[in-house]
Amino acid sequence: MNFVVKTFSELTTSELYRILQLRSEVFVVEQDCVYQDLDGKDQKALHVIGTKEEKIIAYTRLFDSGQYFDTSSIGRVVVDQSQRKFGYGHDLIKASIKAVNNYYNTQEISISAQTYLLKFYTSHGFETIGEEYLEDGIPHVKMIIKNKKLSN
Q1: FRET partner for 14 with CA separation of 20 to 30 A, picked from 4, 49, 53, 73?
Q2: What percentage of the chain carries pLDDT values higher than 90?
Q3: Could you give the count of Cα atoms lying within 13 Å of 17 in the half-sphere of its Cβ?
Q4: What letter does residue 152 receive in the DSSP assignment?
Q5: Which of 56, 61, 59 is nearest to 44 (CA)?
Q6: pLDDT value at position 149?
Q7: What is the pLDDT of residues 36-88, one digit of tens each?
Q8: Which CATH number fits domain 2-106: 1.10.150.20, 2.40.37.20, 3.40.630.30, 3.40.250.10?
Q9: How many CB atoms lie within 10 A of CB 85?
Q10: How far apart are alpha carbons 65 and 62 in whole angstroms?
């Protein structure tokens, strides 16, 4: 899989369409969650796009400190359902952490993780902060990775 990082203005209309389609396929249809995906934050984010055979199959969006959380953050973590068996989620998180390090001067990265993915995020150095909460009707927990673990 190949990864690129783009600002919103660098995205082509085809890329944006496929990103929104992938997010909708997973977050709305697969997870049966009605929510407002188009939240006005994509324009502020950096977009990590994972492609395989020229098709977008993985994606995250990144924010600098203060744009979403007090810290830099990774969100909208998604891998096409048919591609998850190849472990691309791990590659995506590593590429996203690397991109945060390359683009933002940060001491830590925050995520709002779906609780069923705690083991996955913990394997990448994230630690749970606080109690579980509902976000769009799905259990989540805030997680943080500290700068000393970002170089791993």
Answers
A1: 73
A2: 78
A3: 4
A4: -
A5: 61
A6: 59
A7: 788 889 999 999 999 999 999 999 999 999 888 899 999 999 999 999 999 99
A8: 3.40.630.30
A9: 8
A10: 10
Q: How far apart are CA 36 and CA 137, in angstroms?
A: 13
The two three-digit tokens of residue 46, written as one number: 């950096």
> What is the rounded CA–CA span in Å between residue 5 and residue 60?
10
The answer to whether the CB of 130 falls within 8 A of the CB of 112 is no
80 to each of 73, 86, 87, how far by Cα in Å? 21, 11, 11
Contact by Cβ (8 Å): 140, 115: yes
- Residue with the bigger pLDDT between 34 and 116: it is 116
Give the burial class of 123: count Cβ atoms within 10 A of its Cβ; 0-12 exposed, 13-18 middle, 19 or more buried.
exposed
Judged against a pLDDT cut of 60, whether residue 148 lies above it is answered with no
Distance CA(17)–CA(56), nearest Å, equals 10
3-class DSSP state for residue 135? strand
Element (H, E) at 126: none
Residue with tokens 């925050």: 110
16 burial via Cβ count (<10 Å: 0-12, 13-18, 19+):
middle
Q: Where in the chain are the domains?
A: 2-106
